[in-house]
Specification:
It holds the Pfam family Peptidase_M23. InterPro entries: Cell_wall_metabolism_enzyme, Dup_hybrid_motif, M23ase_b-sheet_dom. This is M23 family metallopeptidase. Residues 52-120, 133-167 form the M23ase beta-sheet core domain. By secondary structure, the chain is mainly β. The protein folds into 4 domains: 40-177, Glucose Permease (Domain IIA) (Distorted Sandwich); 187-348, Immunoglobulins (Immunoglobulin-like, Sandwich); 364-468, Chondroitinase Ac, Chain A, domain 3 (Sandwich), CATH 2.60.220.30; 474-558, Immunoglobulin-like (Sandwich). It has 4 helices and 46 strands. Strands 1, 4, 5, 6, 7, 8, 9, 10, 11, 12, 13 and 23 form a 12-stranded antiparallel sheet that branches.
Length: 559
């Protein structure tokens, strides 16, 4: 059997002797942040939409308001209150150089909760991001700091828990810190894919290889490829003892017993987390909801401290059979292996190269008659044969601009300028918004007029257009006008025709009132600012939508 060329063998041997360094993290310094055994719904590094999962999702048995405790001595250094994202979150800084983060909380411990509340009333603003000095809110290991919940971008009650390097703010894999979470289950491999890397990984895309389990080893039939330059990708999950599908911690790719690529997910910063889109088959993730991870480096993927070995591109210099082994590990060392053989068959080659309109590390401008898009040098992870066209749209004040397709990721903001299809008045310009439809959802921005067009920024591809919005936002109360409200809160449901409610202000008897935003609803929990038996109240609510249209509504109720 033939082997690789001499130069390739030298590279492989060098990589085969590589020792991938791992930092020594303190063991058993941090305790379980809940008073129930840790059961994971998601782990660090799991594939998410446009980001790696940056911590542990710890199950709360479908309950809210479980005590959340400090994982170690320290002080509350920051809190956040936001509609999406973390919802209510607490950051605790510890003397050993780490910060722990606790998110999706319902409330904070009493003195902190009161401080935040007073700050909200002082600022007349519900969303907050407050930092604290070391002496303001010291906490001890095991002290209750909050109650768990389901706030922010949470799909069900749980606690999101992170450990960060205090100095760099990098998120570290909490499972490197010695938490006792029994796990004797090896990862499960369910798919293998190859890509023709003479071209972009996006075109022609993935070629499926059927995987079967034989005993304790995963295998495939011999893989015949039509290209002398390929890469592989794997579909696998880490199975925890309780049955949840977790993300893969480590993968290695070996050819003829030589390591040529691997990844390990020990740490990621929020500045870099979007590089997930360069680590997965993005098209299959968007189209088929499948998490397929590349065993190679795309040319525009610049995530540090993630991959090791070479770039993972397999160069086949001959038509001999070569042995492939893929090793998948969880953080406890449970290991699964896939073995197969690969052979180049040039007679199968039917692929012709397309043009590469946009390539990594190069900026690019693309124009149509009425639109212009500008990408910077970090926009794409692999070459894209980018297409852009227009079609008439009777519901818009511009043509619809088709930006390639939904299945190619963009790493950072691009600038898009669209001309209207008729002359707009000054008032109409002020009421125009830019919409991007990317299949699963829509995004609306209030762009800026630049010469003869509106300019906005987006991070996804799809279909964009200009919409004229003359409608007013509104809220609908969960009580009848003037009625006695006996429950614990007031609730208002927000509605817009186009876009979102961008600002909300409520005044009770001419004084600002603290409404929390829960998805599209606004909720005020009765407190001392509206005591029982205080008679008839007037609630004035002012909202503004994406277009900038403002509506003021007045409601009355008794308490």
């Amino acid at each position: 059997m033939k082997t690789f060329s001499k130069s390739l063998l030298i590279i492989c041997y060098t990589i085969g002797n590589l020792i991938f360094a791992q930092n020594n993290y303190p063991q058993n310094y941090f305790r379980n942040p809940l008073n129930i055994p840790i059961q994971l719904a998601a782990n660090f590094g799991a594939v998410r939409s446009n980001h790696f999962h940056m911590g542990l999702d710890i199950r709360t048995n479908s309950q809210e308001n479980l005590p959340v405790v400090a994982a170690a001595d320290g002080y509350v250094s920051r809190i956040k209150v936001e509609r999406y994202g973390f919802g209510n979150a607490v950051y605790v800084t510890h003397p050993n150089g780490y910060t722990t983060v606790y998110a999706h909380l319902n409330s904070y411990f009493d003195s902190l909760d009161e401080y935040v509340k007073q700050r909200q009333y002082k600022d007349e603003k519900w969303e907050q991001d407050i930092t604290f000095s070391a002496g303001q809110f010291p906490v001890s290991k095991g002290q209750m700091i909050a109650l768990s919940g389901n706030t922010g971008g949470s799909a069900g009650p749980h606690l999101h828990f992170e450990i960060r390097d205090t100095k760099t703010e990098e998120c570290l894999n909490p499972l490197l810190f010695g938490f006792n979470i029994p796990d004797g289950v090896a990862p499960v491999i369910s798919g293998l894919y190859w890509y023709d890397r003479r071209f972009s990984s996006y075109e022609p895309g993935a070629n499926d290889i059927a995987v079967k389990k034989v005993g304790n080893i995963y295998k495939t039939d011999i893989v015949y490829v039509s290209s002398p330059s390929i890469s592989l990708a794997i579909k696998a999950v880490d199975k925890a003892n309780k049955g949840f599908n977790l993300g893969i911690y480590e993968a290695q790719l070996l050819i003829d017993n030589h390591l040529i690529y691997g990844f390990k997910i020990d740490k990621v910063s929020y500045d870099d987390t979007r590089y997930i889109n360069g680590c997965i088959d993005y098209a299959k993730f968007i189209r088929d909801k499948m998490s397929i991870q590349h065993l190679s480096v795309l040319p525009g993927m610049k995530l540090p401290d993630y991959s090791f070995g070479s770039n993972g591109i397999i160069t086949l210099p001959d038509e001999a059979i070569h042995n492939i082994e893929i090793v998948i590990k969880d953080i406890n060392g449970n290991t699964s292996r896939l073995t197969t053989q690969i052979q180049l068959n040039k007679t199968l080659d039917r692929v012709s190269s397309g043009s590469r309109t946009i390539t990594p590390n190069e900026g690019k401008m693309v124009k149509t008659e009425n639109a212009e898009i500008n990408f910077d040098k970090n926009a794409v992870y692999d070459a894209v044969n980018f297409s852009m066209s227009e079609r008439s749209d009777p519901d818009a004040v511009s043509n619809a601009v088709i930006l390639h397709n939904l299945y190619v990721p963009v790493h950072n903001n691009y600038s898009l300028k669209i001309k209207p299809n008729r002359k707009l008045t000054g008032e109409e310009k002020n009421q125009t918004v830019m919409e991007l439809n990317y299949g699963s959802d829509k995004e609306f921005v209030k762009g800026k007029w630049n010469g003869n067009g509106m300019e906005g920024q987006f991070k996804r591809l799809g279909v964009a257009r200009l919409l004229l919005d003359t409608s007013l936002p509104s809220v609908s109360p969960n009580w009848k006008e003037g009625m006695f409200v006996g429950n614990s809160s007031l609730q208002l449901k927000g509605t817009t025709k186009i876009g979102d409610i961008e600002s909300f202000r409520a005044e009770l008897d001419e004084k600002w009132l603290r409404f929390a935003r829960v998805k599209d609803n606004f909720v005020y929990v009765f407190d001392e600012n509206c005591p029982k038996g205080s008679g008839l109240h007037t609630l004035k609510v002012t909202t503004m939508n994406t277009a900038g249209n403002i509506n003021t509504q007045t409601f009355t109720f008794q308490r």
